[in-house]
Amino acid sequence: MTDQRFEEFLASIPNLHTWDRGKTWRSGGFNARMLRSIRTGIEASIPSKNLCIAETGAGNSTILFLFMRPKRLVSIAPDAELRDRILTYCAENGIDSSPLEFMPAFSEVALPRFAEKLRK
Predict the structure, then answer these.
(1) CA 101 to CA 28: how far, in whole Å?
(2) What are phi and psi of 95, to 5 degrees?
(3) pLDDT band at 93 (very low <50, low <70, confident <90, very high)
(4) How far is the first Cα of the chain from the last one, in angstroms, to the nearest whole number?
(5) Could you give the CA distance from residue 31 to residue 94 in angstroms, rounded to a whole number?
(6) What are 43-59's pLDDT values in tens digits?
(7) CA nearest 43: which of 28, 59, 63, 65?
(8) In terms of pLDDT, which residue wins out, 117 or 20?
(9) Which of 10, 80, 82, 19 is nearest to 39 (CA)?
């Protein structure tokens, strides 16, 4: 993934979230400066070939993490339609979403199951 694509993503962060059944749309809680800072911090501390990420919540952070080419990305969020919007955005913009494992559940339900799988 080129840095140019990442810069294009930051310049036009997609509106993936709606909390009023599609009347209005928002990009979520991160702006471009925050997303860039998250990427910089992770890349400075973890070798990219070993990058495995688990996140609670999903959206533009998920797309950011996919730009980093993780070995595995687990996103826990109760909104399967949000997953579909993320996957559509990735497909339309040439972002590899194959590392994404989406768990459509609330974190208080999914995290104990996820932790149990890690122990096995």
Answers:
(1) 20
(2) -100, 125
(3) very high
(4) 33
(5) 21
(6) 898 877 788 999 999 99
(7) 65
(8) 20
(9) 10
- What's at 4, amino acid-wise? Q
Tokens of 104: 């459509």
Q: What is the pLDDT of residue 1?
A: 43
CB-count exposure of residue 21 (10 Å: 0-12, 13-18, 19+): exposed
Q: Strand 52-56's sheet: what is its strand order?
A: 52-56, 72-76, 100-103
Structure-token pair, residue 100: 């994404």
Please report the beta strands in 1-120, taking only residues with DSSP state E, as ranges in sequence order: 52-56, 72-76, 100-103
Pair of tokens at residue 47:
């070798």
Separation between Cα atoms, residue 32 and residue 12, nearest integer Å: 9
Amino acid at 25: W
